[in-house]
Amino acid sequence: MYSILISLSKRRLYLYNNSKIVKSYPIGVGKIATQTPVGNYRIISKVPYPYTYPGGPLTVFGTYWLGLSRPHYGIHGTNRPSSIGKMVSKGCIRMHNRNVEELARYVKIGTMVSIRW
């Protein structure tokens, strides 16, 4: 069973299979004023982008969105790869597009996500 541990201080996302780390990815996290919320959540949605909505494509989330059980927060790709490794978001977890696409192949709806300092 897969689970995710996010280390805000290390700016890394760790994918576990049972208790073994199988993948590790660099991430971008929330700014001081809009910090990424610490806690335990679940993945509640998986949406590949670009997603078309009335008015045009939604590209702010890179190529994939993994929504968390905390409303308005998620793990997503970015079209600004230079933001990875920095405190730049409004609280979401940013990943390189290729990494979030790979992560999305492993995790399912209901996967546990633990966010820690």
UniProtKB/TrEMBL annotation:
<keyword id="KW-0808">Transferase</keyword>
<dbReference type="Pfam" id="PF03734">
    <property type="entry name" value="YkuD"/>
</dbReference>
<keyword id="KW-0961">Cell wall biogenesis/degradation</keyword>
<comment type="pathway">
    <text>Cell wall biogenesis; peptidoglycan biosynthesis.</text>
</comment>
<keyword id="KW-0328">Glycosyltransferase</keyword>
<dbReference type="GO" id="GO:0005576">
    <property type="term" value="C:extracellular region"/>
</dbReference>
<dbReference type="GO" id="GO:0008360">
    <property type="term" value="P:regulation of cell shape"/>
</dbReference>
<dbReference type="InterPro" id="IPR038063">
    <property type="entry name" value="Transpep_catalytic_dom"/>
</dbReference>
<dbReference type="GO" id="GO:0018104">
    <property type="term" value="P:peptidoglycan-protein cross-linking"/>
</dbReference>
<dbReference type="InterPro" id="IPR050979">
    <property type="entry name" value="LD-transpeptidase"/>
</dbReference>
<feature type="domain" description="L,D-TPase catalytic">
    <location>
        <begin position="2"/>
        <end position="116"/>
    </location>
</feature>
<protein>
    <submittedName>
        <fullName>L,D-transpeptidase catalytic domain</fullName>
    </submittedName>
</protein>
<keyword id="KW-0133">Cell shape</keyword>
<dbReference type="GO" id="GO:0071972">
    <property type="term" value="F:peptidoglycan L,D-transpeptidase activity"/>
</dbReference>
<dbReference type="InterPro" id="IPR005490">
    <property type="entry name" value="LD_TPept_cat_dom"/>
</dbReference>
<dbReference type="GO" id="GO:0016757">
    <property type="term" value="F:glycosyltransferase activity"/>
</dbReference>
<feature type="active site" description="Nucleophile">
    <location>
        <position position="92"/>
    </location>
</feature>
<feature type="active site" description="Proton donor/acceptor">
    <location>
        <position position="76"/>
    </location>
</feature>
<dbReference type="GO" id="GO:0071555">
    <property type="term" value="P:cell wall organization"/>
</dbReference>
<keyword id="KW-0378">Hydrolase</keyword>
<comment type="similarity">
    <text>Belongs to the YkuD family.</text>
</comment>
<keyword id="KW-0573">Peptidoglycan synthesis</keyword>
